[in-house]
Amino acid sequence: MHVAPTIAEALQRACQEIDHIDARILLQDILNVNHAFLLTHSSQVLSSAQDRIFCQLVARRVNGEPIAYLIGECDFYDLTFIVTPDVLIPRPETELLVELALKRISANNNYRVLDLGTGCGAIALTLAKHCPQINVVAVDFSVAAISVARKNVGNIQVNNVCIATSNWFSELSGEKFDLIVSNPPYVGENDPHLKQGDLRFEPKMALTADTDGLACIRNIVAAASGHLVIGGWLMLEHGYDQASACRGLLEAAGFTETFSHPDLAGIMRVSGGQYNSSSL
Ligand code: GLN
Questions:
Q1: Torsion of CA 35, 36, 39, 42, to 10 degrees
Q2: CB count in 10 Å sphere of residue 202
Q3: C-beta of residue 147 within 8 angstroms of C-beta of residue 130
């Protein structure tokens, strides 16, 4: 007969195959407890169902599946988001885009923000939660992503976000915003990183854009001025080597005050500019 292990034994067994922190997070998720509980209940015996699920998740982790997909959630900024393999897993780098956006957002009650390619809604919902006075529109081309974003709206409890399906600006004709933000797909289609780590399991549609990775950024920059109020800002996350190309595209489209900002690793990660009609 199979004898289920204690918490300590189960963790020790899992750690022979996967990272210690990953093992702990998976077991916490299965038992619905925190780290302190695991430490203080190390001799508690798992039920055979819990042990079976733990073994299955450990095997999937060994196969490379991202922890966020295995537990179905991911922390971003100060919130926790539901994620599924239909959406990109929010990255710490993207918190820079949120911080830069928060600095630009004014206390004005009619301030409107657009998030293009929202995925699970991480950027849009974080801004909406921090700035209850603004109105946020979040769009994604993927219907499956939209359904994840809507779940997050319910979970995080924001009432100032509107989520809709749109291929970039396709469903937004006539709509104007004070700030447009986006973390678009920007990885080149032949980038070897796509065959490594978490990226292997994430939706290609959310990651890749043509051979140089700039196709979506080009589309967004070209169309953004038609959807910004005068003095409005466009801010985009981009790849480690795309900052100057991105600023070049912004300047060619008539944006002024263009900038690039480094992430915590010192890599230029977000570029942006201001729309002033007089400069066109
Ligand atoms: N930052 C992600 C990565 O390279 C890519 C995200 C994106 O394409 N928007 O891991």
A1: -90
A2: 22
A3: no
Q: How confident is the model at residue 106 (pLDDT cuts 50, 70, 90)?
A: confident
Query: Distance from the CA of 89 to the center of ligand 1, in angstroms?
Result: 9
Rounded to an integer, what distance in angstroms lies between the CA atom of residue 190 and that of residue 107? 43
Secondary structure (3-state) at 177: strand
Asked whether 64 and 201 are in contact (CB, 8 A), the reply is yes
* Residue to mutate, 74, 76, 89, 91, ligand 1, most ligand atoms under 8 Å from C-beta: 91
Judge residue 214's burial from the number of C-beta atoms within 10 Å of its C-beta, 0-12 exposed, 13-18 middle, 19 or more buried.
buried
* pLDDT number for residue 1: 62
Contact 44, 88 (CB under 8 A): no
Q: Which residues pair with 163 in a beta bridge?
A: 138
Ligand 1, atom nearest to 186 Cα? 8
Structure tokens at 55: 């073994």
Higher pLDDT, 110 or 132: 132
Instruction: Please count the other Cβ atoms lying within 10 Å of the Cβ belonging to residue 112.
Output: 19
Amino acid residing at 4:
A
Residues 277 and 231: their CA atoms lie apart, in Å, by 8
Average pLDDT over residues 125-137: 97
Long-range contact list for 20-26, CB < 8 A, 24+ apart? 22/61, 22/67, 23/58, 25/67, 25/71, 26/54, 26/57, 26/58, 26/61, 26/67, 26/70, 26/71
Nearest Cα to Cα of residue 119 among 78, 79, 95, 84: 84
Distance 195 CA to ligand 1 centre (A): 13
Residue 92 pLDDT: 96
